[in-house]
């Protein structure tokens, strides 16, 4: 007789296979998050400008800065697509659709009007489970950055031990990249209801 955990593993493997064969409509971002397929419309201009601003501040000579890159989280039925993945240039593989999370130094998610809970809870746990050293949440709803470091744990219980909140306008040191991000140009969403995260 199958236990519930065995059934879940089979369901998640099946969902992973289905996800790999899925062809989403143009302009739709699709992610697999713990066995669930999540589709999102194209991002807002504020969102895209923040991603570009962060990318521009990370030196290309040392770091690869990848957008729309699927990340493979070991032992998880998850293939998130962060807004930005940063890894050392020599760590970058020659090819492949999936980038192992172990190669990433930092992932960046810019909160959209509909992704608040996913970015602050689900992806926080997923990236920690994947041992991504730095997870940066840039939040134009609350005009803040949340820098998460020191991942611990496995599966749903994974989390980051260190959390630093920086308001837009203040410098944001990212020791793991050896730089300080200037957040003064980060835009915000007008007339969006505030939330209580992190």
UniProtKB/TrEMBL annotation:
Note one Pfam family from the annotation.
Uma2
Which residues does the UniProt record annotate as the domain Putative restriction endonuclease? Answer: 19-182
Instruction: State the source organism's domain of life.
Output: Bacteria
Classification from the root reads:
Bacteria, Bacillati, Actinomycetota, Actinomycetes, Kitasatosporales
Q: What's the protein called, per UniProt?
A: Putative restriction endonuclease domain-containing protein
PANTHER family noted in UniProt: SLL1072 PROTEIN, SLR1083 PROTEIN
Identify the InterPro entries for this entry.
Answer: Nuclease_put_TT1808, Restrct_endonuc-II-like, Uma2
Which species?
Streptomyces caeruleatus
